[in-house]
Design a protein that fits this description.
The chain is mainly alpha-helical. It has one domain. Helix content is about 65%, strand content about 0%. Helix 2 packs antiparallel against helix 3. It is globular.
């Protein structure tokens, strides 16, 4: 009897080996580094959605405040949930989050009430 999951296709086995290698590599990365990388990715994406990568953010074709709100809120939740594990990275990550929250407030035509902006349910009001 043959196992239907086994194949004689050599590329199928190499894909599995490649996937296993990636999992092993991830297992070697400390949790704080994974969390910090995720935070940096969220920060970068939020900055793009705020148009901050362009010379004139108001004219940026990438500006999307609804998307920026989601990314900033996700970042705030991640920072709040992982603050105790971030160690020396906590301060810079919090500073980056606050900068994005302030940039969002400045970019908004009708700014949210204090405490109602993106991520402020996790961080408190940002001024």
């Amino acid at each position: 009897m043959t196992d239907p999951n086994l194949t004689s296709d050599p590329t199928a086995n190499s894909v599995t080996e490649a996937e296993e290698a990636q999992v092993r590599e991830l297992a070697a990365i400390p949790a704080v580094e994974v969390i910090t990388r995720a935070a940096v990715m969220l920060m970068s994406a939020a900055a793009e959605k705020l148009g901050l990568a362009d010379a004139d953010p108001d004219e940026s074709p990438h500006r999307d405040l609804d998307e920026a709100r989601r990314l900033i809120t996700a970042l705030a939740g991640l920072v709040q949930a992982s603050a105790e594990y971030l160690g020396m990275h906590a301060g810079p990550v919090r500073d980056g989050l606050k900068s994005l929250q302030l940039a969002f407030r400045e970019a908004s035509v009708a700014p949210d009430e204090p405490g109602q902006g993106p991520g402020e349910k996790y961080t408190g009001p940002v001024w």
